[in-house]
Amino acid sequence: MPLFNHMTGATICDFCSGANPLWRYPAATFHDSFGSKSVEDWLACEACHAMIEAGDREGLIERAFRCPGIPLVVAMRGREWARTYVVDLHKRFRRNRRGQPYRMAS
Ligand SMILES: [Zn+2]
């Protein structure tokens, strides 16, 4: 999107909110099922990047549950609903991807 850690201002992984994302995935701007806007490229940490390239969609969905916002969604709507949201979000991301990822200078 890219996302930032609000405390440190550092970029974080768009898939799991992990620190130190190294890969940039060109993407078009799109909306999630809440209507929240995802602006352009997504950043990925090494582990998420490996899962994306390996086509490990289940692994990537599981990792998304590390995001700080997800426990709140689980508390409000339940785990199954949160999972459906993540599945849909990743589907939208794939649809809006624009070409190959590239490694960022670290
Ligand atoms: Zn990640």
Would you give an account of this structure?
With 106 residues, this protein is of the alpha+beta class. The protein has one domain (3-98). Helices cover 41% and strands 15% of the residues. The protein contains 4 helices and 7 strands; from the N terminus they run ββββββααααβ. The protein has helices at residues 46-54, 57-64, 70-77, 79-96, and strands spanning 3-4, 11-12, 23-25, 30-31, 37-38, 42-44, 102-103. The chain has a 3-stranded antiparallel beta sheet with strand order 6-3-7. The longest helix is centred in the last third of the chain and has 18 residues, at 79-96. The chain is globular, with a radius of gyration of 13 Å. It starts with a strand and ends with a strand. The relative contact order is 0.22. Bound molecules: zinc ion. Residues 13, 15-16, 18, 44-45, 47-48 line the site of zinc ion.
Give a quick rundown of the structure:
The chain is of the alpha+beta class and 106 residues long. The protein has one domain (3-98). Helix content is 41%, strand content 15%.
